[in-house]
Here is the input.
Amino acid sequence: MLQHWSRAIAHIWGLEGSLMQLDGEYDLNFSVATPTEQFVLKVMRPGCEQALVDMQCLSLEHLHQQSLPTQVPVPQVIITLEGQNFTVYHDPQGKPRIVWLVSKFEGLNYAHFQPKSGVLIHQLGSYMGHMSAQLESFNHAYLKRDFKWNLMQSGWIEAELGCIENLERKEIITTIVEQFKALETDLNNLPQQCIHNDVNDYNILVQGSLNQAPYISGIIDLGDMCLAPRVCDLAIAGAYIVLDQTQPEQALAQLVAGVHSSAPLTAMEVALVWPLLRMRLAVSVVNSTLMALDNPDDPYITISQGPAWAFLQNHRMSGGLIEARLRFACGLPLNTAAKPTLAWLSEHSGAFFPLLGADIDLNQAPMVDLSVEGSSIPQDPFSIQPHEAQQLINPNLQLALGYYLEPRLVYTDKAFKNSSWPSSNRRTVHLGLDIFAPAGTALHAPLAAKVEAIDNRQANLDYGGVVILRHQSPRGDEFYSLYGHLNPSSVTQLIVGQELSAGDVFAHLGEPSHNGGWDPHVHVQLALSIEGMGYDWPGAVDPDDINLWQSVCPNPSLLLNLNHDVTQYSPPSKDQAQQVRQDHFGQNLKLSYAEPVMFLRGWRHYLFDEWGRPYLDAYNNVPHVGHAHPRVAQVAAEQLVRINTNSRYLHPSRSAFAEQVLSHMPSELSVCYFVNSGSEANELALRLARAHTGAKQIITPQHGYFGNTTGTVDISAYKFASPRAKAGGLSQPDWVHLVDVADDYRGQYRRDDKAAGELYAQQVAQHIATLKTNGEQLAGFIAETFPSVGGQIVPPPDYLQHVYKHVRSAGGLCIADEVQTGLGRLGDFYFGFEQQQVVPDVVVLGKPIGNGHPIGVVVTRPAIAASFAHGPEFFSTFGGSNLSCVVGTEVLRIIEDEQLMNNAHDMGKLLFAGLRKLQKEHACIGDVRGFGLFVGVDLVSDPDSREPATQIADYVKNRMCEERILMGSEGPDDNVLKIRPPLTIGAEDVNHVLHMLAKVLQEVRVLTS
Ligand SMILES: Cc1ncc(COP(=O)(O)O)c(C=O)c1O
Here is the structure.
């Protein structure tokens, strides 16, 4: 067959090319590749009307002829040698077929493309807007045909509803049809024009790569064009765009905003998008249900309806709120009343009756800061305790105000969460204004009102008594105010519909026992419309939706005669923090991630940004026992109020810390030094080696990192051998000798080589031999037990045994930097050297031992300490302060008490199992290695050559951060994903990491294919 159509191409268009059959529902489609160009040959179904093809060809010509600044990427028709748009050619069976040829776009179907970002959807909308503007002037007789896919004619499904057996589904479709019928007059009043009518996810092509943002490369298949209001085109595209989105309303808003940017929509059109979108989905599911009945043996028909049914059944987003969102996305006002109402309120603000009575001037009340940054309530952002909720403000304050739009962590109930992962996004931003005053305080109507709704919401952390009042501006526009946390018995005395005059007392503030469990206060909220939300107003909203909600529920300060600027919260500015950093910080201090993040709170293995958005921290190893551990905070605070002085005085905290550290060490290592950082500890380790051996020569692996001081940079190849070393005045000192990292995945000796450990260690022996020849003496060998910046490497199990043997026989000391690997992170071993079955001469500890407080520890043998003691006094002013000692001791105790090493073991097992599964599915995962929660995922562009995939690692790390999971990248080529969370991480979090990683790796697959 391919040969037959190849001949046709040569004959009709004079082209020589290779053909490949493409998918096509009714027609035959072939891709045609000539040496220079790509085309699509369309062989229409037998009996196809000529007018259908003519309409498409002419419309494509029309879209290409336009001399408009924006060219919509639609295919170009290739004219036959005889100068026609299409012709007739007989197929191998001798049937006449209409054939035509169009240019082919590069790109993948939107259906299969990942990620489907908001920017991409906006671009699609923008092209659609241009296309509808350009098609307005196109006409063709065939556009006027009867067509079941013309939304204007979609009423046909009503007669077919009997085909749906499931009653719930039938009811959904019935409702959609009823809603559609109610809109028919509006629809019929809209001008009709030529529309594409089928911008579905297989008719959109997308291109993109790891370093090029995805873009729409083509919009194809104009075979369904018809005459209809242009908003139908948008609704149809919307019906596909929403289907596989976790936040479909946001995706739809992007599409609508995109269309609006190039073809401004009217408010009427915006109002029609959602009901028309649902009608299109209804037509799809009814149509495929009928098809399934006709083709009972084709399971695909039923499967293909799945996403549309799932959306219709599960996504009962209220139409009113969707409309508000879409209007907002287009920059249209919430409704016609919103602007004049706000103007009227602001004109009269200052003259409304004071809510707490004429004697109380709220302008005198202080603002209280309950924000993510300004408050430590609740300590656990996942579970506010009753005593915390009941004492949000200083009990000495009789009157205080809580900010409008303040991000808070107090909303810990699951009702505030958006999905089921522990660190799912949640509603944190306060949409009202709080007035803290004693329980029993009377509330006076600020202006004339009718009681719209009363309720007693008894759930913990809910409102208790709540009242909604309806008001009317002199223009007749209605708006509403809500008062929550009231005494329910005062509220139940009200009657819905009851008229209130300005100043009338209508309720009283409740006690915690019946106001939802809160410190007595009233939450006041204003709404310019209750369309779509009824009486269930969200009191706190998702930070990503603030702008929308601000337009529905503006700052109620106007009603309370308060100053808008004083009562509206503004979070610490990320831009300003970045600017100060740029202006006043050294520029070789890097920020993590392409889009830097600002964190204001931490808890266990979670971090919270300035809007209270939670991030899962799968990266930071310093908060070893979890961010903001209350026990650490408590011992530190208690110590600071008693004494914090230096190690020249006796204090039990110092001996306690030493005992704690030594209890985990081999008995031979019994002398401790306390310093302030890993760098300082490694400096000291070098001095110990020099003092004990009288020598200076050091052997150390490539890519090692030991700290930022002059001495530690001298031994850190990661710094002195970096491409920028010279510019930084660094080079390899002549007393430092490098060996390969014992990397059995990518190095010269691999995992299948049983002698790999010995062979890597041989390089140490070779250096020692050279030193001997040169008459030099070895001071020691220093290595991170599992090289971290070197790429999360686990050396062959006997590597250090061989190395230490060589070093010791040359009189050198063996120094183990356990900054990254110590204290139980490995799950099976408290220290990395245990896995290597060696006992070092000097062990260096840092980072995790202070859980964020700066502590470094060096532990050594008594004989080495004795050699060092012959020299001048060693003293570190802050090293071993009382504060550091109590913190360090507490951290070590917590590791035991909370069995965190066990947790590292269990969670590591889960993580490794998941990663190994992903490795089978994704060729870019070359290696998964590590122990416990010290994990490296080595990404490769080719699993055979093991070529490091630096770009993929960069993409994955940044996308994971966008998905609010922190991980890093390491290794000489920066291609190894580094996962090393606080040891508190739980199974659900690990599954969250794996779930998101699977999603992002799928994107990588698409973007690299
Ligand atoms: C293995 C290792 N040793 C030493 C250090 C230096 O520690 P600090 O930054 O506390 O001085 C680091 C820091 O990253 C490290 O990873």
The mean pLDDT is 96. Residues 677-679, 682, 705-708, 784, 788, 817, 819-820, 846-847 surround pyridoxal-5'-phosphate (CB under 6 Å). The longest strand covers residues 449-457.
